[in-house]
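Quick one, probably user error.
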């Protein structure tokens, strides 16, 4: 299905260009793949409701491999991403997440991984998810946040520049404030410290490429990250944040 409105053309072009890298680097590079699998599983572990799921900003559809085979709709603005998702998600819709082409209150769960910072009007994207989510439905949400660590990969890869004109990072409190306009925050989890991104930006650079036993080292580094995520104050300086929220009754 192809329903696309006034999407951000530059952002869509960027996503079309990087879709190949997602398939050939992000989920094939061992170091990166292990990290992203844990990220997906952490998000999915927060789901308690059954029913129709919207993967909002589904990319190449990799999250669907961790979900039931039915009852999923993948949505993305990028034709390049969706062309690679078609073998993973049965129903795909192309369009603008700021103008979701769905009826009110039809989804039980919305998964939203790293989408809002690509939208020109992220608050409108939140309003739209609220509109299409059933009362009491669950939003599982993950985004990079603005911290010392979040600046590292951008400086390494892009010299501090953003990927496009609309690309941004949110401060944690701003992100939570936006969500609280329409949702009740249920859980907040922090992730990304030493393993990602301090020792490398594994979507682009594999820091353990020539290291023996690199899978063991990778899991050890991730365990260190998980330990840091439980330390008060320090944990808030993470690269990313995952939030579980529910629609107000």
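Nope, works fine. Designed sequence:
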């Amino acid at each position: 299905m192809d329903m696309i409105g006034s999407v951000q053309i530059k952002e869509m072009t960027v996503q079309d260009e990087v879709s190949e890298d997602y398939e050939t680097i992000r989920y094939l590079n061992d170091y990166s793949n292990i990290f992203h699998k844990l990220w997906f599983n952490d998000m999915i572990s927060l789901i308690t409701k059954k029913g129709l799921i919207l993967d909002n900003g589904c990319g190449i559809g990799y999250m669907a491999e961790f979900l039931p085979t039915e009852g999923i709709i993948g949505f993305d603005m990028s034709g390049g991403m969706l062309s690679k998702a078609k073998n993973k998600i049965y129903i795909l819709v192309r369009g603008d997440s700021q103008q979701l082409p769905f009826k009110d209150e039809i989804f039980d769960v919305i998964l939203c991984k790293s989408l809002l910072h690509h939208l020109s009007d992220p608050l409108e994207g939140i309003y739209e998810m609220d509109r299409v989510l059933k009362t009491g439905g669950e939003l599982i949400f993950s985004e990079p946040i603005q911290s010392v660590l979040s600046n590292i990969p951008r400086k390494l890869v892009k010299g501090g520049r953003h990927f496009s004109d609309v690309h941004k990072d949110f401060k944690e409190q701003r992100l939570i404030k936006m969500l609280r306009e329409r949702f009740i925050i249920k859980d907040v989890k922090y992730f990304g410290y030493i393993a990602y991104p301090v020792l490398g930006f594994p979507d682009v650079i594999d820091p353990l490429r020539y290291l023996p036993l690199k899978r063991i080292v990778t899991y050890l580094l991730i365990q260190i990250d998980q330990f840091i995520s439980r330390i008060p104050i320090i944990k808030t300086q993470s690269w990313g944040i995952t939030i579980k929220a529910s629609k107000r009754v």
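The longest strand covers residues 133-144.
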